[in-house]
Specification:
Blueprint (H helix, E strand, L loop, with lengths): L5 H21 L21 E3 L10 H14 L1 H6 L1 H12 L13 E5 L8 E8 L1 E5 L8 E4 L11 H5 L9 E5 L2 H10 L1 E5 L7 E8 L7 H7 L10 H9 L3 H8 L6 E6 L17 E3 L10 E9 L5 E14 L8 E8 L1 H9 L1 E10 L1
Parallel strand pairs: 3-13, 4-7, 10-12
Antiparallel strand pairs: 1-2, 2-14, 3-14, 4-6, 5-6, 7-8, 8-9, 10-13, 11-12, 11-14
Length: 361
């Protein structure tokens, strides 16, 4: 990989394990069709079944083409490995063929059985935040973001760090105006930092953690009766924090002893495990033992409104598997939704089901 992204990838594994744990603890995976489940295929007898899907044309053709171009530029070996498929799909696009006509360009489609073996693939979402910050503490910008300490032995807990255990050691690389923003950056594994001084955004990527155990603040908020478990999401946690005093947010976050450190990367793009820049709505994290890196998938995605509700609208996306995660196992895709607040809002809501087809020669 380029730009030393190995540590970002290792954090992705840890991150998605946390997300999956929060989902399980809050009981979000119900059988409700409100999550986009469709029971129309009957029981599958294998993880994949060859068929010709009768779907609308993918809405993101230009994003898909851009994503494949990023693969060709940033990972020539991965491009060569899948070149036959990429070129055939280009031919399919240029001929304006239907999703049931992939055979005309030498391709087949294999529908995934889904987690319930009835065609429902679990879909979650992730994104890259943009956080406002300053180089030095000033006014409300007083919450430090730290680089990884070197050679200091056992690292302090979150509470100890909040209480100044690392102050004065020259480890501060920025100061934000929100403890919760800093925490969400930890959960997502990276963020763009906007110093609001006319300079380009700076990418802060994962540099390490303190080694303390992780406690789900989502689970704590459910146990305390602050958020109903069926409403739990990253967005609902953020909304809760916006209504609280700074002390109350502080008192909740210190119950999670784990703490993440970052490093600065200039002129950097968000990359997945394959070392390829990710295009929003055209890339997914997958279980590479089931969906090899570089694979192309057709995904029937349920669309959510601004309140995170699924109201029956869906769209077809042509996507590439370019990222991984420790808890992305089996029939589960994590959709990369992009950069910034709107992408974050959508990512926080997604715990829904869609149908998916893997495209192969």
């Amino acid at each position: 990989m380029k730009r030393n992204y190995y540590t970002v990838i290792s954090f992705k594994t840890w991150l998605i394990m946390l997300c999956a744990a929060m989902i399980m603890l809050t009981g979000c995976q119900s059988n409700s069709t409100n999550q986009g489940r469709q029971f129309i295929e009957g029981r599958f007898n294998a993880p994949f079944t060859a068929n010709k899907p009768h779907l609308n044309i993918p809405v993101n053709i230009s994003d898909y083409i851009n994503q494949v171009a990023k693969i060709r530029t940033n990972s020539p070996a991965l491009y060569r490995q899948n070149e036959k498929i990429y070129r055939a799909i280009d031919n399919w696009i240029n001929q304006s063929l239907g999703t049931d006509e992939l055979y005309k360009v030498g391709l087949s489609s294999y529908e995934m059985a889904g987690q319930d073996e009835m065609g429902n693939v679990f879909l979650t979402g992730y994104y890259t935040p943009v956080i406002k910050a300053r180089h030095q503490p000033t006014g409300k910008f007083k919450h430090p973001i730290y680089r990884m300490p070197n050679g200091v032995g056992k690292l302090p807990t979150r509470e100890q760090i909040y209480n100044g255990a690392l102050a004065g050691k020259g480890l501060e690389i920025a100061y934000s105006d929100s403890l919760m923003d800093n925490f969400i950056m930890e959960v997502q594994g990276s963020a763009y930092i906007d110093f609001e001084d006319g300079t380009p955004l700076v990418f802060f990527c994962y540099a390490g953690k303190n080694g303390s155990g992780y406690t789900s603040i989502g689970r704590l908020l459910v146990e305390q009766g602050e958020i109903p478990k069926e409403k739990m999401s990253m967005q609902s946690i953020r909304d809760w924090a916006d209504r609280q005093s700074e002390k109350r947010v502080h008192d909740l976050l210190i119950k999670n002893r784990s703490f993440v450190f970052f490093k600065q990367q200039y002129n950097a793009e968000v990359k997945g495990a394959a070392g390829v820049p990710l295009i929003a709505n055209a890339s997914v994290a997958s279980d590479k033992t089931l969906i090899p890196t570089g694979s192309v998938v057709l995904v029937d995605v349920p669309l959510l409104d601004n309140d995170g509700e699924y109201r029956g609208r869906r769209e077809i996306r042509l996507m590439v598997a370019l990222d991984v995660g420790g808890a992305i196992k089996g029939q589960h895709f994590d959709l990369y939704l992009g950069i910034g607040d709107q992408a974050g809002k959508q990512a926080g809501y997604y715990k829904h089901y869609g149908r998916a087809w893997v495209i192969q020669p």
